[in-house]
């Protein structure tokens, strides 16, 4: 029997997972798999950037899932640590080790167990994320604001707003006062749009299980010593997650190596430029351009795409379409799909101008706060979040005992003034904001810096997104085309969701299932973030 030719577009989590699932356990006898990756790296926005001995995690990736299949999959690629990591030893930190697991100090292919700390930085003060009911929270707010928050929340219990936009979604769960403090301005900073014009579906996917009531349940659980591990409880309330020793890109680089060992052909710097159709309306081949500008035609029986839907439709429109042209309405929807782009500016410093007032010990200088992420809710600065890479993994920082390696995350649009800044201009802008917020004392504290830009990092839920179901129905009509991953489905998926779309697509190819409802249904269950 001739092998089935499968072409996978994109070497990110979804594409590499699909190749792995097709080829594991001798799948190379049935499938010839080719992966086309437009860049020279693996992992998409889950890649790890290297700079002068230090590593940057683009956007931050906590490895946790309520899907046991995903958790076991990750663990099969990078086994969980069975001995203390460098910071575990230095801090004499008790740890739940994996029996027989590798020693992070002796091997690189290992997944660390990490403690999650994320806080909000608002008007120069730290608040727990999500906002907790600790005495420190009430002190930071002050009596008058605390009363306003309380009565506003009680009002939201009595008077529920129709959840036809993200603003009402938040107000129903937190009250108008807390919404105006911590959600309204930050959401607009993130998306460039007011929450009143963004679909509530984004909240359903990302923060459905988080509310004042969820925070109360979490607080009472802690009183009785309950700790949420990776994959347990509401997504934003987990206290433990897994993390590759050298960042998320390490896992996907490892998966890519396994894929090639299984028999996959992976072509880097392969930019897809058009698709050709068969006479009966299926995809016949894809045309890609290599690093030298030469074009190549790759025929296939099945096509799995994680490229942005907008680019996918453009490529179909440019193809040799003997059967049909792209309908004008479908092209209009695709062209109008909105994205938010992303810039990270990394800084290496001796210390932060902050004080660790938590009871969580930190590695190195005492002024390193324990946070993985710091959410910057102040609208007076453009930065949205600050990562402290030391706290994700000590192995991301070359001199972790004496230096702090941080990343300032900015949300923007490709082509806008901030995106078009030179590296020097963006670094200067970010450095000035660090000083303005009091995170560092002066510009002279910076020892090294790096700027990284990411296109189409966040699929957005407004404009023609409201008509996306019409577009996905049309894409499904090709029969042998499967759309997977965050940008492949224009859905703000976590990494585990992107992998699950690949699982479903592969299951359909192997079983012969014609409809793709299962592929598109991943991460649409509103209970996902509430109960396991």
Salient structural properties:
single chain; alpha/beta; FAD/NAD(P)-binding domain; protoporphyrinogen ix oxidase, domain 3; Polyamine Oxidase, Chain A, domain 2; 3 domains; seven-stranded mixed β-sheet; about 20% strand; globular; disordered C terminus
Give the CATH level 1 class of the largest domain.
Alpha Beta
Largest sheet: 7 strands, mixed
CATH homologous superfamily identity of the largest domain: FAD/NAD(P)-binding domain
Distance between the termini: 42 Å
Report on the architecture of this protein.
It is a single chain. With 532 residues, the protein is of the alpha/beta class. Helices cover 33% and strands 21% of the residues. It has three domains: 4-44 and 252-337 and 463-520, FAD/NAD(P)-binding domain, CATH 3.50.50; 131-228, protoporphyrinogen ix oxidase, domain 3 (Orthogonal Bundle); 339-459, Protoporphyrinogen oxidase, mitochondrial, domain 2 (Polyamine Oxidase, Chain A, domain 2, Alpha-Beta Complex), CATH 3.90.660. It has helices spanning 13-23, 68-77, 86-90, 135-141, 143-158, 166-174, 176-182, 184-191, 201-206, 212-223, 248-262, 309-317, 328-336, 389-392, 423-437, 468-476, 486-489, 495-511, 517-520, and strands at residues 4-9, 31-36, 48-51, 54-57, 111-115, 118-122, 125-128, 240-244, 265-267, 271-277, 283-289, 295-299, 302-305, 339-349, 373-376, 385-388, 404-412, 446-459, 481-483. A seven-stranded mixed β-sheet has the order 7-6-15-16-17-14-18. A five-stranded parallel β-sheet has the order 9-2-1-13-19, with helices on one face. Helix 1 runs parallel beside helix 11 (248-262). The longest helix has 17 residues, at 495-511. The chain is globular, with a radius of gyration of 23 Å. Mean pLDDT is 89; it is low at 233-237 and 526-532.
């Amino acid at each position: 029997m001739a092998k089935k030719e499968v072409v996978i577009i994109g070497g990110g989590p979804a594409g590499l997972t699909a190749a792995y699932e097709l080829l594991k356990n001798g799948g190379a006898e049935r499938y010839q798999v080719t992966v086309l990756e437009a860049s020279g790296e693996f992992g998409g926005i889950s890649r790890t950037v290297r700079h002068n001995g230090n590593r940057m995690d683009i956007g931050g990736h906590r490895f946790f899932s309520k899907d046991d299949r995903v958790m076991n999959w990750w663990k099969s690629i990078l086994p969980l640590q069975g001995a203390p990591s460098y910071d575990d030893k230095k801090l004499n930190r008790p740890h739940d080790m994996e029996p027989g697991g590798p020693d992070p100090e002796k091997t690189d292919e290992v997944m660390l167990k990490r403690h999650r700390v994320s806080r909000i930085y608002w008007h120069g003060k730290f608040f727990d994320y999500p906002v907790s009911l600790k005495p420190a929270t009430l002190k930071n707010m002050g009596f008058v604001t605390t009363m306003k928050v309380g009565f506003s929340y009680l009002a939201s219990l009595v008077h529920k707003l129709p959840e036809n936009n993200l603003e009402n979604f938040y107000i129903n769960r937190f009250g108008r006062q807390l919404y105006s403090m911590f959600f309204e301005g930050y959401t607009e900073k993130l998306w460039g749009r007011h929450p009143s014009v963004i679909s509530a579906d984004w909240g359903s996917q990302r923060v459905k299980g988080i509310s004042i009531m969820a925070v109360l349940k979490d607080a009472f659980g802690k009183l009785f010593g309950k700790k949420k591990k990776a994959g347990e409880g509401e997504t934003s309330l987990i206290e433990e997650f897994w993390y590759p020793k050298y960042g998320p890109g390490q896992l996907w680089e490892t998966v890519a190596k396994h894929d090639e060992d299984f028999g996959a052909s992976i072509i880097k710097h392969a930019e897809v430029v058009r698709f050709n159709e068969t006479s009966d309306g299926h995809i016949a081949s894809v045309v890609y351009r290599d690093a030298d500008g030469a074009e190549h035609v790759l025929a296939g029986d099945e096509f799995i795409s994680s490229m942005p839907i907008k680019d996918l439709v453009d490529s179909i429109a440019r193809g040799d379409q003997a059967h049909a042209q792209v309908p004008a309405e479908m092209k209009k929807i695709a062209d109008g799909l909105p994205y938010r782009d992303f810039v990270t500016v990394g800084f290496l410093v001796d210390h932060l101008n902050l004080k660790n007032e938590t009871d969580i010990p930190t590695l190195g200088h005492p002024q390193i706060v324990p946070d993985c992420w710091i959410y910057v809710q102040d609208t007076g600065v453009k930065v949205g979040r600050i990562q402290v890479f030391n706290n994700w993994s000590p192995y991301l920082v070359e001199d972790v005992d004496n230096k702090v390696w941080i990343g300032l995350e900015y949300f923007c649009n490709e082509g806008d003034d901030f995106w078009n800044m030179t590296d020097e201009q963006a670094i200067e802008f970010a450095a000035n904001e660090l000083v303005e917020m009091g995170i560092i004392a002066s510009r002279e504290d910076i020892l090294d810096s790096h700027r990284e830009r990411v296109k189409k990092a966040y699929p957005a839920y407004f404009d023609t997104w409201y008509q996306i179901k019409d577009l996905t129905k049309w894409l499904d009509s090709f029969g042998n085309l499967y759309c997977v991953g965050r940008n492949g489905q224009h859905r703000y998926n976590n990494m585990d969701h992107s992998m699950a779309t690949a699982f479903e697509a592969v299951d359909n190819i192997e079983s012969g299932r014609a409809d793709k409802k299962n592929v598109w249904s991943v991460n649409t269950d509103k209970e996902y973030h509430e109960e396991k």
